[in-house]
C-alpha cells in the first residue's frame, strides 16, 4: 500500500515537472539595421507588467526565427493578469576596432505572439543612414517597424525611401 502511494506521488511529480518544461516556440525574426544577427543577440527576456502592479521577468531564448519560452509563461502572458509587456534584449555590434553593445526595449502586444510569424526590424538612429531617415523613439536612439500576416506597421520617414524595383 505504501509503495503504491509513493509510486502515484512520484508519477504525479514527474508529470507536473514535464508539463512545466514544455517549450513554446514563436516564429519571430529580429533584424537590426537591415542585418539578420546570428549569434549577437543575448540577454533576451520579457518584462510583464501585471494588473496588480507587480512585474514579472520571463527569460526567453532567441535564435534567428524563433523566440522560445516555457509554455506556462506563454499562457501567463496571454492571460488577463498581464497589463502590458516588453521584449528586452541586447545586441553586440561587431566593429573593426571595438564592439558596441545596444539594449532595446520593444513593447509587444498579446496578438503579436499568436501570428504565424512576426518580423521586427530595428534601426539605430545614431547611425548616419538611419538618422536621416527616421525619428527615434522618445528618449531612445532607435526605432522599429514590424510585419505580420495581414499587415505591417512602418514608421513615417523624414525622406522618401529608395525603391529597389526601379
Task: Write a concise keyword list for the protein shown above.
single chain, 166 residues, alpha+beta, six-stranded mixed β-sheet, four-stranded antiparallel β-sheet, 3 helices, 19% helix, globular
Report on this structure.
- By secondary structure, the protein is α+β, with helices and mostly antiparallel strands.
- It has a domain at 21-123.
- Helix content is 19%, strand content 45%.
- It contains 3 helices and 10 strands, in the order αβββββαβββαββ.
- The strands form 2 sheets. It has a 6-stranded mixed beta sheet with strand order 4-5-1-8-9-10. Strands 3-2-6-7 form a 4-stranded antiparallel beta sheet.
- The mean pLDDT is 85.
Strand and helix order: HEEEEEHEEEHEE
Q: Provide the gyration radius in Å.
A: 20 Å
Strands ordered across the widest β-sheet: 4-5-1-8-9-10
Number of E-type strands: 10
Instruction: Give average pLDDT, whole number.
Output: 85
Question: Distance between termini?
Answer: 80 Å
In percent, how much strand structure appears in the residues? 35-45%
Q: Output the structural class.
A: alpha+beta
Number of helices: 3
- Major sheet: 6 strands, mixed
Oligomer: single chain
Helix amount: 10-25%
Low-pLDDT residue spans: none
Shape: globular
Question: What would a concise description of this structure say?
Answer:
The chain is of the alpha+beta class. Helices cover 19% and strands 45% of the residues.
SSE arrangement:
Blueprint: H1 2-20, E1 23-32, E2 41-50, E3 55-59, E4 61-63, E5 65-70, H2 71-78, E6 82-94, E7 99-108, E8 118-124, H3 128-131, E9 142-148, E10 151-153
Parallel strand pairs: 1-8
Antiparallel strand pairs: 1-5, 2-3, 2-6, 4-5, 6-7, 8-9, 9-10
Amino acid at each position: 500500500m505504501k509503495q503504491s502511494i509513493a509510486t502515484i506521488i512520484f508519477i504525479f511529480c514527474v508529470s507536473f515537472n514535464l508539463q512545466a518544461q514544455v517549450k513554446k516556440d514563436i516564429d519571430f525574426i529580429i533584424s537590426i539595421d537591415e542585418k539578420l544577427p546570428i549569434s549577437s543577440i543575448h540577454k533576451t527576456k520579457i518584462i510583464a507588467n501585471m494588473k496588480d502592479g507587480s512585474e514579472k521577468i520571463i527569460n526567453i531564448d532567441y535564435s534567428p526565427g524563433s523566440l522560445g519560452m516555457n509554455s506556462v509563461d506563454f499562457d501567463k502572458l496571454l492571460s488577463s493578469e498581464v497589463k502590458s509587456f516588453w521584449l528586452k534584449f541586447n545586441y553586440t555590434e561587431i566593429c573593426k576596432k571595438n564592439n558596441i553593445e545596444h539594449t532595446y526595449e520593444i513593447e509587444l502586444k498579446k496578438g503579436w505572439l499568436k501570428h504565424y510569424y512576426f518580423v521586427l526590424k530595428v534601426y539605430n538612429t545614431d547611425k548616419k543612414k538611419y538618422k536621416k531617415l527616421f525619428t527615434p523613439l522618445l528618449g531612445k536612439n532607435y526605432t522599429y517597424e514590424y510585419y505580420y500576416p495581414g499587415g505591417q506597421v512602418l514608421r513615417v520617414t523624414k525622406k522618401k525611401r529608395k525603391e529597389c524595383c526601379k
